[in-house]
Design goal:
alpha+beta, about 50% helix, five-stranded antiparallel beta sheet
Length: about 120
């Protein structure tokens, strides 16, 4: 009886050692990472890509602004570009009133026929 038990224990030890020596499957590793990869792809197409496109459009709009263009500044101020500098605009907002703003603070370019009321 003791020999039978010892044979069974030896068999279990051999199976346990074989299981430890076996390499884990590659498919299991990829399947565990699949949800993370799907989330990254979704974030890219839903959040990051549209924001990059919007930023490119804004940069193009700002680069095309010239003196005399009517604009709305991010703070809601309507004005007319009086001077274009390297990193800023000088905006005329009233008679004898000019302010200097950063180029990226222009939120909208108004049409040519726009006039303040």
């Amino acid at each position: 009886m003791i020999e039978f038990v010892m044979t069974k224990i030896d068999g279990m030890v051999i199976l346990a050692q074989a299981a430890e020596d076996a390499e884990p499957g590659m498919g299991a590793g990829l399947m565990s990472m699949a949800p993370l990869l799907i989330m990254i792809v979704l974030f890219y197409f839903i959040l990051i890509r549209p924001q990059m496109k919007k930023q490119k459009q804004h940069d193009k709009m700002v680069s095309e602004i010239k003196s005399g263009t009517n604009v709305i500044v991010a703070g809601g101020i309507y004005g007319n570009i009086a001077n274009v500098k390297e990193k800023s605009f000088v905006v005329k907002i009233a008679d004898n009133v000019k302010i200097e703003i950063q180029k990226n603070s222009v939120s909208q370019v108004l049409s040519e026929g726009y006039e303040k009321k």
